Amino acid sequence: MTKVQTVKINNKYAAKMKKGYPLIEKGAIEQPKLLKREGELLRLVDEKGDFIGIGYYGVQNKGLGWIISRRPDERVDTAFFARKIQTALSHRQKLFNDPETTAFRVVNGEGDGLGGVTIDFYGGYYLIQWYSKGIYSFKEPLLAALGQVAEYKGIYQKKRFKEKGQYLEEDDFVMGERGSFPIIVKENGVRFAIYLNDGAMTGVFLDQREVRKAIRERYSEGADMLNMFSYTGAFSVNAALGGANLTTSVDVANRSLPKTIEQFAVNGMDYEQQEIIVDDVFQYFKYAARKKRTFDLVVLDPPSFAKTKKRTFSAAKDYTGLLKETIAITKDQGVIVASTNCSAFGMKKFKRFIQDACKETKTNFNILEEYSLPEDFRTIRAFPEGDYLKVVFLRVKK
Ligand code: SAH
């Protein structure tokens, strides 16, 4: 087992870390030079030497690692990971027992006491995502633990950290039997085609499950629906199943066209009855305005950052502008589903973007519903920035 190094935490950070804050922030460590090898275990103490927690060194944008135990005598071995994963699995029992939903998150990083790693369940397969070289160094005991406590057909992984300065493309298969992709999973009865071996994304973002259900059940009947930044069209498929008159999906990536066709097809729908457009949303706003096309329901779910040939988009800076363009092509009494996964701001600021956009376009609005992460994306109160998802349904009155 790895040797545990004792590391001092600055007073400024120690108090909140003692109260449960799990992230080892960049400024927290008095002598960062003592950290040598990612994956090494750290016994964190305050300036007086009082114990704070056991953490590991693993570099992410967010910080230098995570506290993974509050017990001074913790042994970080297979049994340790097995206990963590077992507890995490028990919190998802309801989902495991739901035959209509076969894809969900089972370990949500620090929300389940294991900052730096997530594990998702996809119809019998598990997908592990490693967010640092440090946590990846625990691959062996963590995999052994998952094998002990979970039944699986196969296990896949994605490394979400750079090696030799870049993200390496490799075979993501780890153990068990290989899937034959796409595998078809269900979410509240809706089907999705999933690829666990095809780049960074799998075909669906699991954190939007409740939002997709709300759209299907309460907002789609008879609607002309527009899905901006549509990726594989998961929102469009739900709107169509909910009785939308027409769905229009817009995404700049070429892959979005075949991917969206596939998601309609696996749900037994004729994609030719839907509109799937490969274009920059900012071009599409102009096009729709010129053609005087308006919509009853618009879903707006941009990435936090995006770079196209023409411009860079940042949710923190550009969301208000995006909403103003959306309001312009939304019908009176129409509904906008404003969504963001940007962790740089919270719900309060997000609502301010909505208010500003409505004010600047002289539009009245009322909020119908709000969503944050679903239960399987467990978060802890001590780390509110882990609850990154913000979704607001608003009705606009022109
Ligand atoms: N709403 C999607 C997820 C969006 S992921 C869902 O529910 O599954 C972000 C997507 O935005 C990516 O597919 C990317 O290709 C697309 N994108 C980024 N910049 C864009 C732009 N300027 N115009 C259109 N699509 C863009």
Fill in the keyword field for this structure.
398 residues; alpha/beta; Archaeosine Trna-guanine Transglycosylase, Chain: A, domain 4; Transcription Regulator spoIIAA; Rossmann fold; 3 domains; seven-stranded mixed sheet; five-stranded mixed sheet; 29% strand; binds S-adenosyl-L-homocysteine
Short description:
The chain is of the alpha/beta class and 398 residues long. The protein has eleven helices and 20 strands.
Describe the structure.
The chain is α/β, with parallel strands linked by helices. Helix 10 crosses helix 11. The chain is 27% helix and 29% strand. It is globular. The strands form five sheets. The chain has a seven-stranded mixed beta sheet, sandwiched between helices. The chain has three domains: 66 residues, PUA domain (Archaeosine Trna-guanine Transglycosylase, Chain: A, domain 4, Roll); 112 residues, Transcription Regulator spoIIAA; 193 residues, Vaccinia Virus protein VP39 (Rossmann fold). The longest helix has 14 residues. It is built from eleven helices and 20 strands. The structure holds S-adenosyl-L-homocysteine.
Residue fraction in strands: 25-35%
Query: Terminal Cα separation, in Å?
Result: 65 Å
Number of helical runs?
A: 11
> Per CATH, what is the topology of the largest domain?
Rossmann fold
- Kindly provide the radius of gyration, computed on alpha-carbon positions and rounded to a whole number of angstroms: 22 Å
SSE class? alpha/beta
Taking pLDDT < 50 over at least 5 consecutive residues as the criterion, the unreliable ranges are none
CATH superfamily of the largest domain: Vaccinia Virus protein VP39
How many domains would you count in the coordinates?
Answer: 3
